[in-house]
Amino acid sequence: MAELNYGLTESQIEIRDMVREFAETRVKPVRAELDEKEEFPRAILNELGKMDLMGLYIPSEYGGFGAESSLDFIIAIEELSRVCIGVSVSYAANALGADPILIGASDEQKKKYLPPLASGEKLAAFALTEPNAGSDAGGIQTTAVLKGDKYILNGTKQWITNGGEADTYTVMAVTDRNKGPRGVSCFIVEKGMPGFKFGKKENKLGIHASATRELIFEDAEVPKANIIGREGMGFILAMRTFDVSRPGIAAQGGGLAQGALDEVVNYARQRVQFGRPIIANQGYQWTLADMATEIEASRALLYSVCRTVDSGAKDYSKFSAMIKLYATDVAMKVTTNAVQLLGGYGYMKEYPVEKMMRDAKILQIYEGTNQIQRDVIGAALIKEYASAKK
Amino acid sequence: MHVVVCIKQVPGTTKVAINPETNTLIRDGVEAIINPFDENALEAALALKDKTPGTKVTVVCMGPPQAENALREATARGADNVVLLCDRAFAGSDTWATSYALAQGIKALEKVDIIYCGKQAIDGDTAQVGPGVAEFLGWPVITYVRKLDVEGDTVKIERVFEDGFEKIEAPLPVVVTVVKEMNVPRMASLKGRMRAKKEQIKMLTAESAKADPNEVGLKGSPTRVVKIFTPPKKTSGQKWDGIGDPIHAAKTLVGKLKEQKLV
Q1: Widest distance between CA atoms in chain B
Q2: Which of A82, A201, A340, A353 has CB atoms 3.0–4.6 Å from A255's, for a disulfide?
Q3: Rounded-to-integer distance, Cα A112 and Cα A109, Å
């Protein structure tokens, strides 16, 4: 197939090819079953660990592959997502959980927590959302109070991806109620710490393979040494985490949309109605053309954002928000059209596109709804134009 | 421990055309893969290495220069050493000459404890090379292995048949041929793949393997292929409904058999 020249490195091409083969041979045969049974893809993640893919984004001094570019990890997410985003979110959420550690933890904390994540021996999760703190992350109610050499955590986190399955959690909790967002701190909490429990497992529209669960802290005891950075740094850590993680959601969208396009084109070439393959109809082709164009545009923007991140740019929140917004809106549109283009078959579970459409919806919601992304972009525009006038 | 895996590169499809003049397979333009049963053999060796630190895995392949790709894949999956037996003198070898050449190549390596082979190759389906290698080395061979545990100087093995399995113990060194159900072959790791790109493939010629030139290649091959052809499709035969009218069906059947002088 003709490809745009994105100037991929040797390792990026290697990653693309190996994950594509892995997704086709190891994930595709089980995706419907994982979806149906709402089963966590533990065996798949174990295998990805053995293939060095769990630690792509982790520096080699902490046991990772030490990829030179953020694009390496993005390509792995994209290729997995082409087949199943329930699996790819379980994979990518490890990075979300590990990002606060990578961004703000001490060398000692990194040495302790990153190597088992890099090998895939342990999984990570990121815990910010609460019943009253979604888009308004400042509304966090979970508290952390220092008592001797421990922080005592109380509160409930909800909709935590990899909840219950992960071993290492980065948890946001309020250490100073009077300071608003500046009073939030981030802690590394291990499964099994006293007072840390799991609540209900969510029943979701899509991404059934992923585990989404409540975390409950009842006088949970977390060592003082497990705070990342210092008190009050939590909110900044969360925002910086989203800057690096949002392109990952875009990669899920791009991969998913590409997977849906693959299904539709293959179907339309074979399906005969009125004496010819339905792909021979202009109306059909025009829809496919729009899908393919938007998918490629989404990929081009995503890869550009990654290169900007790699170049050491300080402020790329606007671009992370743009690509999260664009790629996931494209994914929703493409998967919805995919169901339509397969007609009655598209609605049936024998074909994968109904799952793709159900799965796609979450992409417009998690890691900041697409409305929040527009807020981020809008705020950046106001700031940029205001400072340009001076 | 030092274990050797013998692998063969085969066409990645069963739809290979046959050249009627030379009675050989036309391999041009067909993707080449590691023989699937040999992948199980490789996995068995790598799993033993994972379980028993200090184990070294050497993969040996006989074939044209492009068989290097199969050995790179083996390196990527975790093989420590790879050796390609590659020489014009080997061309046209049958299973006898191939077994001899592989045995010679293996003799050139440091002391070997176990040799793993796939139960057969999917192109020729002879299942002869594994046992042949054992014969040329003078070692015991155990075929159709689905489970193997090393205990001291012996191996405990489960050998599978259509209607059950045998438990066997054998002394080292030993040659085993493995079945598909033994394991699920791993995929290569990223670091392995990057390493394999740069790997220098060790080449052994007939001379460096100390193989007698009269025992390899066409000269050393007693097999003569008279003809290779795709068998004609079987027709479905005739049927008589025995449920509706059993007496008529039986009479017709007996009549037809008599006609053919079969009863």
Answers
A1: 75
A2: A82
A3: 5
pLDDT value of position B14: 67
User: How many C-beta atoms lie closer than 10 Å to residue B141's C-beta?
Assistant: 18
pLDDT value of residue A390? 60
As given in the structure block, the two tokens for residue B169 are 């113990």
> What is the interface size between A and B, counted as CB pairs within 8 Å?
32
A386 exposed, middle or buried (CB, 10 Å; 0-12, 13-18, 19+)? exposed
Residues of chain A with pLDDT under 70: 389-390
What chain A holds in terms of domains, given with CATH numbers, is 10-122 (1.10.540.10), 125-231 (2.40.110.10), 235-384 (1.20.140.10)
Superfamily of structural domain B2-204: HUPs (3.40.50.620)
Which residues of A are less than 8 Å from B189 in CB distance? 50-52
Could you identify the residue written with the tokens 């050249």? Answer: B19
Element (H, E) at A342: none
Q: How far apart are CA B162 and CA B24, in angstroms?
A: 31
Q: What is the DSSP letter of A9?
A: -
| Contact between B194 and A14 using a beta-carbon 8 Å cutoff | yes
Residue of A nearest to B188 (CA): A51
Tell me: ipTM over 0.95.
Answer: no
Judged by CB atoms closer than 8 Å, whether chains meet at B190 and A51 is answered as yes
Would strands A276-277 and A272-273 be described as parallel, antiparallel, or unpaired? antiparallel
Test B187 with A53 for CB contact under 8 angstroms. no
Q: Is A367 a catalytic residue?
A: yes
* Portions of chain B given CATH number 3.40.50.620: 2-204
Give the amino acid at A206: G
For the segment A275-329, what is each residue's pLDDT rounded down to a tens digit?
Answer: 999 999 999 999 999 999 999 999 999 999 999 999 999 889 999 999 999 999 9
Distance CA A327, CA A239 (A): 20
| Chain B contact for A15 (CB, 8 A cutoff) | yes
Give the pLDDT confidence of B47-104 residue by residue, as tens digits: 999 999 999 999 999 999 999 999 999 999 999 999 999 999 998 899 999 999 999 9
Cβ distance B190 to A10 less than 8 Å, yes or no, reads no
Q: Looking at the partner chain, which of A11, A21, A22 has a beta carbon nearest the beta carbon of B194?
A: A11
Could you list the beta-strand ranges (E) of A131-245: 143-147, 150-161, 168-174, 184-190, 196-201, 212-223
Q: What is the pTM of this model?
A: 0.88
Of the listed A165, A263, A354, A367, which one is catalytic? A367
Residues of B in contact with A26 (CB under 8 A): 187
Reported residue count of chain B is 263
Specify the DSSP element, H or E, that contains A291.
helix A282-310
Across the interface, of A21, A25, A52, the residue whose CB is closest to B190 is A52
Q: Are A239 and A368 in contact (CB under 8 A)?
A: no
Residue A32 structure tokens? 């419907």
Q: Which helix (H) or strand (E) holds A38?
A: none
Instruction: Supply the Cα-derived Rg of chain B in whole angstroms.
Output: 23
